[in-house]
Design a protein that fits this description.
By secondary structure, the chain is of the alpha+beta class. It has helices at residues 20-41, 43-50, 53-62, 71-83, 86-89, 104-115, 119-139, 212-222, 226-237, 245-248, 255-260, 271-280, 285-290, 296-310, 338-354, 359-371, and strands spanning 91-97, 140-141, 145-154, 159-167, 172-179, 193-196, 204-205. The chain has a 5-stranded antiparallel beta sheet, sandwiched between helices. Strands 2-7 form a two-stranded antiparallel sheet. A hairpin with a 4-residue loop joins strand 3 (145-154) and strand 4 (159-167). The two termini are 27 Å apart.
Length: 379
């Protein structure tokens, strides 16, 4: 059985823009490495590498970008978008940062036409892009708002997602990796990796396996008539001779969590959205999430009431594993995965050696790669 690894990188939120003299060189090197890897291993293996947090970080390091910066996500995927050609490489990057992420559907349609996909395949890929963003922005609530969404698709209709959210309160970022090969269900343990440098004490995780019963209860609630659901929420907010819903919420000193977990019932519930859900009658949690207008407050409200009404508690464990990009030699905070790191380094080292670039550029790239290796390991 293949176990998906959850890796973690320190991603402080950095502003600014990569200079053109750097991005030009990064684009040239990225194209060379990608061309060699795709020729030798194929497009599916290439996007699988990008979904590996160890390889992604090492790749950013080789391309001369700060390994620890939140910008490694946006810049590396942006460089790949301009360096890769669907016709030449058989893989394309759709979407991007900020407003560019909204163009993902049109990017997917354009790429699909170049690859000769059917309209149904294009629609399915567009839906995949939308639901992966919905999950990380809504079903997981840890204080991060998505601002970057990169959707990679191959000529074989395989896909990967690399998206990132930011927290203005503590100036940190969190990256989410998805891979079609490893995503068996969009709403239960779907990620290939989640990386970040902050682990919350409590974060609503509705895609955890432990939240299965809470998901089912949320779906059942959404299928109730809106007036009945409103009465349930109002009675749950302040039942007679019982503590209020606000008292039930987790206590925390973090300002973002106070905002995250505060539900002034029923004011924060979008009743028009729940009316649409009732009319739609979703058969599962994925369908509930896909209803237009279902956002964090609706998901949270249904989850909280599901526990009060059905006794089904959602998972409040933050899915990120607190660590650094490759762990520490002393096992703190996370043992080094030497095998994974060695493999990533070896692949990139061979690719750089074979790249059709100058010897000076090769030496500089290999020198940057060595910075990624912990000094006291046998790598």
């Amino acid at each position: 059985m293949n176990m998906c690894r959850t890796g973690v990188a320190n991603l402080p939120l950095h502003g600014g823009k990569a200079p053109s003299w750097l991005t030009g060189r990064m684009r040239k090197l990225a194209k060379e490495i990608a061309s060699i890897m795709i020729e030798e291993q194929g497009t599916d293996k290439f996007i699988a590498r990008l979904s590996d947090p160890y390889w992604f970080q090492a790749f950013g390091c080789v391309l001369a970008y700060d390994w620890h910066s939140s910008g490694v996500t946006t810049v590396v995927t942006g460089i790949l978008k301009s360096a890769l050609s669907p016709e030449e490489h058989g893989v394309a990057v759709c979407g991007g940062k900020g407003k560019t992420s909204r163009k993902t559907p049109s990017d997917i349609a354009a790429v699909g036409q170049k690859f000769g996909f059917s309209q149904q395949s294009i629609d399915d890929l567009t839906y995949t892009s939308r639901i992966t963003a919905k999950v990380d922005n809504t079903a997981i609530q840890a204080g991060y708002q998505l601002y970057h969404h990169a959707f990679l698709v191959t000529k074989n209709e395989k896909w990967a997602v690399i998206q990132q959210g930011m927290s203005d309160q503590d100036q940190s970022a969190r990256r989410y990796h998805w891979l079609s090969e490893n995503t068996k269900c969009f709403v239960e343990e779907p990620h290939n990796a989640i990386v970040g440098n902050v682990k919350r004490e409590r974060a609503l995780n509705m895609v955890a396996k432990q939240s299965d019963a809470a998901r089912k209860a949320s779906v059942d609630l959404s299928k109730e008539p809106t007036r009945k659901l409103m009465n349930l929420i109002q009675s749950a907010a302040k039942p007679l001779n019982q503590a209020s819903l606000q008292d039930w919420l987790p206590k925390t000193s973090d300002l973002w969590q106070q905002t995250l977990t505060t539900l002034n019932m029923p004011r924060n519930i979008n009743w028009d959205t729940l009316a649409r859900a009732y009319e739609f009658q979703p058969s599962n949690y994925e369908e509930l999430l896909s209803v237009k207008g279902v956002g964090p407050a609706t998901v949270r409200g249904l989850a909280l009431v599901a526990e009060l009404v059905y006794g089904e508690e959602p998972c409040w464990e933050d899915p990120v594993k607190f660590s650094f990009a490759y762990g520490g030699k002393d096992g703190v905070p996370f043992p080094v995965d030497c095998k994974a790191m060695d493999e990533s380094i070896e692949i990139l080292r061979d690719s750089v050696q074979q790249a059709k670039i100058g010897e000076k550029e090769k030496l500089q790239s290999l020198k940057r790669l060595r910075r990624y290796v912990p000094k006291d390991t046998n790598s």
